[in-house]
Each structure stands twice: as structure tokens, then as C-alpha cells.
């Protein structure tokens, strides 16, 4: 990754976190934790890695993204808006009547959203179908499937992983957001996933573990996955709420309720990020 | 336009063969058509498609919910997926995937749920579905069909492939079914077929029970009761116009389905008649408050009181009840 690319990705990551805070704050609550843990991934994808045309979101040559952990929609919307898919002010219609930005992604409503998700596990199968279709069409586009670690409780994920590996869908990359928490607590307590990377390897994936908050490491992992020629999985070691210490440390940060303290932390974080962005400009 | 066969006592074609041959023919001209299986290709005949059109066949393994999601994903890339598995796995087991990844997401998923109701035979109660129509009918925009015979099944499958976005479900026996329609018959989704005119009683049937309804009508004709039979192969969208038009002036209306009386053809017709203010003696003849079980199909058809004789008994019971109106339904199967 060049310095320019790194600057662009890091700037986008800042914008995504700021936008998510600005989107959720007026609503009083929202899926902050899981949006922040994938903010760096989204910044890398839209800042560097993906082939896309923001003014032609269904361009056949685009790389496909399926956010199977659909509750992290706000992070995706921020990445899409900051990448020109729709005006940034649309972000502030999140969850409002007739919005094109519903809490969970909807392919019929949002430019740049390739698949409707939200019922956990289902995005794994639809992404498998997309990758299968691309293979049959001889289309070399990549499919990025973003899955939550808690989501892996769903058996459907593993059915889809079997299919992806067995059919040799080697232009699909599974990105597991291993942020260690799900709604009811730590994944280790709710339903111990044990070694996710070992499980993905056992399912037939070329598997890597990487710091999911380190865009350089993540980029290297994606390049290695692409070079492997095999169905690939990247288990991203992430922090739920990553990027703002208050939200990282907040235990119940799946859907954050903006009480007085959280509101203050969010406002401070927005100011802090804006100052950083000004420094970068 | 449809034409009836002259001789309904023939063996008739296999419905699965009709599905496979229709898909194979469509695949010749439309490379977007893909067949998906969940490891029942030997049972459905989809293995023939795997051989004839290997690039248009997707083996999903024993993972029906995953199959529906894969179909939805392929649809989003322009393919026209057609999935098969046994009826209960095609509906009960994979319902949320059909609903969300399919219909809600604006994708196309065509589904053949095989061996509904008593046609399950040796696979028994675990593989029986008397609820598939009820479940599928609730999906916005869905098309739900029950094929009367192989000719109609072939037409339905071909029609589904051209429908575009949405979930389209057809149920039907895999094996030979007595013929109702002559080769070359065509139909219209959302339009029922009057397959026998009559003046006293209106029987609205679906699936292979249309044949049994015709048998019952013949038996009752000998007893001086004139029975009209409608093949309501398309249960959703329902031909409400035909239901009301044909019900008016009849002494009774009876629905006849290889399905639970809850949520199926009978309730759809009942709601139509009630809401249109058509007041007529009415019975839903189907299965009530029972699970499936194992046995030969003809045994199961008798056990669940789904034979022509059972329909005759229901109609005769209605005439005996006529004017009283508060008797328990004779069709509850208990």
C-alpha cells in the first residue's frame, strides 16, 4: 500500500467513525460497537481495494460486498456516502420513515448494497450464490463476505462455508469480524466459538489471522488471500467499539444507548476526529 | 386453452420427469436458468440435468436453507434459479431464507416441493407436509401452485421461468399421476379451470386430487347430484372472480385439498366467499390436526380421508345437513 493509499484509507476510517456517531447520536441508540470494529475494513475496501463505480453502482465489473452482519449497516452507509454513492446528508435519514438507509442493508433501497441482510447467517449463503454466479458467468470480480463472530452461532454460516470451499469459490474472501462480543456478552460466554481460524481451516479455507484494526496488516492479508488461488478466510482480531476508548470499554456496546455519558463521549470523539481530519486536509 | 384427456384411467406421466424435461428444454435457449438440488437429485431426476447441463446445475448438498440463499444470490446476478427438495424441506425448513433472502430482498427463487401430503408414501411423517401452502401463501407476491398432472406441471415450471422477480412455489408428486389434461394444454396463473360443469355442488380442488374430484363427481352424477369441478391449480393468486361466479346459485361449495384445512385452498376460498358476501353451505375437505405417517400412498390417501369416496361422503353429508348449519365438519379427519 502506498503512502497516498494509506492516507486515503485512514482518512476514510476517521470519516466512517465520525459519520456513524453523527448518524446514531440523534437517534438515541444504535449499533455502534459492530460498526466500529469493521470501520477500518470498510475504509480499506472503499478507500483502496474494491473495484466500483459510485455513479454506476450495479456496474457488472464491480467487486461485490455482502455485509452478512447486517446490523453494522451504519458503517457501510458511511463508507458508501463518503465514496460518492449517495449524498452524505442522506446518512442522517437512517431509520426514518421512507429512508433508503434502513437499520439493516437492503439491496432494493441503497445504491452500492449488493445484498439484503440482517437475519444473521443468510448473507453467507447469498454471498456464496453471488460468487457461484460470477464463476459461472466468467466474471472475475471479487466477493467480500463480512461475517460477525457472534453470527457464527448460526448453522447456516457453516452450510455456506461448506459450499464455498467445496465448490472452490476462490474469488470469495470471508472476513470474520472477531470482536469477541455479541449482544448478550462475550462470545466465549454466550457460545464459545473456540478457535475460529482453525475451524475455517478445517472447513477448507486458506485462513489467516490478522489485526483487523491495522489497515496495513489487513491489506497484506487480503493480497495474500487473493494470491492463494483458494477460497480464503481472514479472521480479523478486532475490538467492539474500536477507535473511541469510551465505547471500547463500555461493556454493553452492541447497541449503544446514548445516555449523558455516552453522548458526551460521542461529541468529544466527533470533535477529536474532525480536528484530526482538519490536520490531514 | 386446456383440453381434457379422453381417458383418465391411464397411468399418466411422472411429474418429476415433467419438471426435469421442461428445465432441460429451457436451458437449451436460456443459459441463465440454473437447477439447484439439495442431494435429492436421484429422487427428483435432477441428476439428469447435472449430466446434460453441468454448467447449469448447482449441487448444494443436504442444506436446504443454504440452497435457498444460494439461489437468491445467483438471482441477484441475473440467473433464474429453480430449486428442488421434498416439500417440507422446501418450505418449513427453509422458510425464513425463502422469505428474506428471496422475496423480501427482491430476488427470484423458483421452488418445486415434491411429494406433498399423502404422496410422501414410504418416507413417512417426517417427510410429510400438509402445511406448505399455508406457509408459502403468506409471502407477499408469491405464486403458489399445486399441479394436477404432468402436463400441467410442465406448463407451470415453464411459466415460472419467465415470471421474473419473486418466489414461485409448485408442489406435486414426483411419480406418475393420472392425467387430467391433454398434451399441449395451456393455462393461466391466477385462473382456475372448470374441468367439469355442474349445477348443484361446486367442488374446488387442487393438485392430483382434481382427478379424485372428477371421480366423485361421476359417482354423484349417478346418484342425481350435479357436481361442478374447478381445478384451482394456482392457489395464489387465487381466481376469486371464478370462485364467486361459480359458487352463486350452488347448493354447496366444497374445497378438496391434499393439505391442512388451515391456511390452504379451503381457507382461501372461504375468505373469498365470506368477503364477497356469497352465502352458501361450505366445507373444507382436507386434513385437520394430524401429522403425517408412513405407508403406501393409496393407504395414506384413505387414512387421511382424501379419496373420491371421502369427498362423496362430505358432499352427501352436506346435503343431509343442509338447512341446519351447525354440525361439525365431516372433513376434519379425526
Task: Describe the protein.
Chain B: Residues 13-179 form the Transketolase-like pyrimidine-binding domain. Chain B: This is Transketolase C-terminal domain-containing protein. Chain A: Its cofactor is thiamine diphosphate. Chain A: Belongs to the transketolase family. Chain A: Keywords: Thiamine pyrophosphate. Chain A: It comes from Kribbibacterium absianum. The complex is a heterodimer of chains A (281) and B (334). Chain A has 281 residues and is an alpha/beta fold. Chain A has one domain (3-280): Thiamin diphosphate (ThDP)-binding fold, Pyr/PP domains (Rossmann fold). Chain A is 46% helix and 13% strand. Chain A contains eleven helices and nine strands. Chain A has helices at residues 3-24, 33-37, 39-49, 73-82, 122-137, 155-166, 187-191, 196-202, 215-228, 245-249, 260-280, and strands at 29-30, 64-67, 143-148, 172-178, 181-182, 185-186, 206-211, 232-237, 256-257. In chain A, the strands form three sheets. In chain A, strands 2-3-4-8-7 form a five-stranded parallel β-sheet, sandwiched between helices. A two-stranded antiparallel sheet of chain A has the order 1-9. The longest helix of chain A is centred in the N-terminal third of the chain and has 22 residues, at 3-24. The model of chain A has no long low-confidence stretch (mean pLDDT 97). Chain B has 334 residues and is of the alpha/beta class. Chain B folds into two domains: 15-172, 3-Layer(aba) Sandwich (Rossmann fold); 193-321, Rossmann fold, CATH 3.40.50.920. Chain B is globular, with a radius of gyration of 19 Å. Mean pLDDT of chain B is 95; it is low at 323-334. The interface between A and B is medium-sized, with 28 and 28 residues.
